[in-house]
């Protein structure tokens, strides 16, 4: 059996696993990004005054704390994190999505904070001077100007998530990991190498689809005046 | 020197018969964690339609003072009155929408088109779209940029000078009675800055706003200001018209700050149109009378081209230089030095001679036209 024969005889399964892989990444990164952006906006603040205690101190504390916590999550080996969630969420889709969501937090949060804080001070000062309230400034000036940086964070986190999702197969998560794990465990047996090869290649297909998706999103959502 | 100046220099009329638009009463700012006030016990009144220049060395409190007027910085003590109304405790964002604000770097929103940038305040005030669009075009005209070319561009496609013009247009958008300007021309190259200053004065003649303007450039303060407020470490050292600041500094600090060259700088304040000039004749017959009047040869269109007769001087050996009557004595001196001439013909807009200014007049004291001061 050559590889093309393998592909055609298993096309339905491969297509199903690829779709599942795409969806699980889409959902996890979507939820993770939403959490991170909302959190990033909520804790965005000016530099707290070192001589006076204010709400800015809380915001800064939460921001730095969240960054440390999500960074720590990202350093936990994925295999371990899936296993650690088994007692709580069991085998299957839920665990896969929860773990992937946690992994996607750090990059988006970090980029949101970086994007919001690097907006030109002169722009913010003139907005304030023209009578923009804090909320209006955040949503109509800071967020759009930070958006390219945030979107890049989402893009990076998506690529990372595609490969981490593969490991989700150990807890019977959906996606191409099933093929890979299966192939590796039977290595030497018939078609086992084809399974590994297919799992890898179709991860690349999923990544390509996401890249096209992001190119379109970028085009549609980045304001013309700041497009590079 | 200052005694003669009193009688001969035209002082721009200021304050007469107009109410104060901006009043600061005992305003003080002490930044948290600091014991030294950044601005202490400041009383300042700005008359309606005046340009007041706030000037002083770094850290003198001029910018803090400016930002307390629209409460970007909240005063620690004192009262701020705008057109007679106490605004010390009103909503800051609402207040700022009624006050134009221009900063050094322009601060245009890079993701907004030029028209949208100009329209931000009208939009917050709830104007309808058509009115905002018309207003943006009107203001683009006012600041000398063609609306059809510029309205749909983005800030990064504009030069620094153009961006600063848009900054001014944006501040004027909702037609606020008061404008605050924080070194608006500070980051612009000298040639463009000079042109922007001229345009700014031109615009001010049309709009007649009450303007507080922070600068660190004395030249700029003298050129633009109806009045100048000199600050030193949180205190107002002198508040007077430019001529008084230059000729009669209130104390050592102001006189140090004004520095040397005050007498020369003052020349730019004296407008030729206000001076009693020596007569000039262009008539052929006058050439024979030789009654101590300068006579110039004119070309076909009535413009003087050379001297035919000069009382007590060699007419043939003296080049004829001209200066427009809209200029200042400073311009006249510049022209004389440049042309190595001891006198200059002052001409009107059509280039016809109106009078003569002698080098000796500068030393002997300039006479202002009767009833014109």
Automatic annotation (TrEMBL), chain A:
**Which species does this protein come from?**
Actinomycetospora chibensis
Membrane topology summary: Multi-pass membrane protein
Matches recorded under InterPro entries = ABC_transp_perm/SBD, MetI-like, MetI-like_sf
Domain of life, source organism: Bacteria
What name does the UniProt record give this protein?
Answer: ABC transporter permease
Q: Taking every annotated instance into account, which residue ranges of this chain make up the domain ABC transmembrane type-1?
A: 18-214
Q: List keywords of the entry alphabetically.
A: Membrane, Transmembrane, Transmembrane helix, Transport
Q: Which family does it belong to?
A: Belongs to the binding-protein-dependent transport system permease family.
List all membrane-crossing ranges: 20-44, 91-109, 145-172, 192-217
Where, per UniProt, does this protein localize? Cell membrane; Membrane
From TrEMBL, chain B:
The record places domain CBS at: 316-373
- Keywords from the UniProt entry: ATP-binding, CBS domain, Nucleotide-binding, Transport
- Say yes or no: keyword Ligase present: no
Asked if the record carries the keyword Nucleotide-binding, the reply is yes
Show the GO MF annotations: ATP binding
Name of the molecule in the record: ABC transporter ATP-binding protein
Q: Which family does it belong to?
A: Belongs to the ABC transporter superfamily.
List residues of the ABC transporter domain: 22-258
InterPro entries per record: AAA+_ATPase, ABC_transporter-like_ATP-bd, ABC_transporter-like_CS, CBS_dom, CBS_dom_sf, P-loop_NTPase
Pfam families attached here? ABC_tran (PF00005), CBS (PF00571)
């Amino acid at each position: 059996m050559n590889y093309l024969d393998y592909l055609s005889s298993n096309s339905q399964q491969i297509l199903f696993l690829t779709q599942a892989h795409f969806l699980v990444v889409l959902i996890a990164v979507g939820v993770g990004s939403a959490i991170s952006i909302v959190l990033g906006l909520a804790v965005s603040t000016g530099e707290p005054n070192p001589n006076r205690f204010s709400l800015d101190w809380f915001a800064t504390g939460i921001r730095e704390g969240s960054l440390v916590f999500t960074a720590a999550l990202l350093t936990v080996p994925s295999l371990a994190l899936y296993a650690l969630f088994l007692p709580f969420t069991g085998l299957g889709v839920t665990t896969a999505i929860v773990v992937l969501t946690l992994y996607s937090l750090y990059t988006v949060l970090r980029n949101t904070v970086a994007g919001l804080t690097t907006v030109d001070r002169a722009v913010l000062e003139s907005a304030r001077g023209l009578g923009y309230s804090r909320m209006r400034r955040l949503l109509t000036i800071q967020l759009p100007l930070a958006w390219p940086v945030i979107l890049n964070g989402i893009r990076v986190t998506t690529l990372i998530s595609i490969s981490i999702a593969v490991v989700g197969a150990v807890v019977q998560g959906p996606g191409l990991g099933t093929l890979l794990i299966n192939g590796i465990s039977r290595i030497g047996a018939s078609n086992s190498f084809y399974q590994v090869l297919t799992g890898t290649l179709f991860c690349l297909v999923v990544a390509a689809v996401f890249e096209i998706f992001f190119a379109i999103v970028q085009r549609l959502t980045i304001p013309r005046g700041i497009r590079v | 020197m200052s005694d003669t100046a009193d009688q001969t220099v035209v002082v721009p009329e200021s304050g007469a018969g107009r109410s104060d638009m901006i009043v600061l009463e005992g305003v003080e700012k002490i930044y948290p964690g600091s014991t030294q006030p950044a601005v202490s016990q400041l009383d300042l009144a700005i008359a309606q339609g005046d340009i007041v220049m706030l000037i002083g060395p770094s850290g003198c409190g001029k910018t803090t003072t400016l930002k307390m007027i629209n409460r970007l910085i909240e005063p620690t003590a004192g009262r701020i009155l705008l057109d007679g109304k106490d605004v010390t405790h009103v909503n800051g964002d609402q207040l700022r929408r009624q006050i134009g604000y221009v900063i050094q770097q322009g601060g245009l929103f890079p993701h907004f088109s030029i028209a949208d940038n100009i329209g931000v305040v009208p939009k917050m005030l709830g104007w309808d779209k058509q009115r905002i669009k018309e207003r943006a075009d009107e203001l683009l005209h006012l600041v000398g940029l063609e609306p059809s070319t510029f309205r749909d561009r983005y800030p990064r496609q504009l030069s620094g000078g153009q961006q600063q013009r848009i900054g001014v247009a944006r501040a004027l958008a909702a037609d606020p009675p008061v404008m605050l300007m924080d070194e608006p021309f500070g980051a612009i190259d000298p040639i463009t800055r000079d042109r922007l200053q001229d345009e700014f004065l031109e615009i001010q003649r049309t709009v007649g706003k009450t303007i507080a303007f922070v600068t660190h450039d004395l030249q700029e303060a003298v050129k633009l200001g109806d009045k100048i407020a000199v600050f030193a470490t949180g205190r107002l050292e002198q508040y007077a018209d430019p001529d008084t600041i230059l000729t009669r500094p209130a104390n050592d600090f102001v006189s140090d700050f004004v520095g040397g060259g005050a007498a020369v700088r003052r020349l730019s304040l004296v407008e030729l149109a206000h001076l009693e000039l020596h007569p000039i004749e262009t008539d052929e017959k006058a050439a024979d009378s030789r009654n101590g009047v300068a006579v110039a040869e004119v070309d076909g269109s009535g413009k003087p081209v050379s001297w035919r007769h000069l009382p007590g001087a060699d007419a043939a050996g003296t080049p004829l230089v001209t200066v427009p009557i809209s200029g200042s004595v400073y311009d006249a001196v510049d022209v004389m030095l440049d042309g190595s001439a001891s006198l200059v013909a002052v001409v009107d807009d059509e280039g016809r001679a109106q009078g003569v200014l002698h080098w000796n007049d500068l030393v002997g004291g300039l006479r202002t036209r009767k009833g014109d001061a």
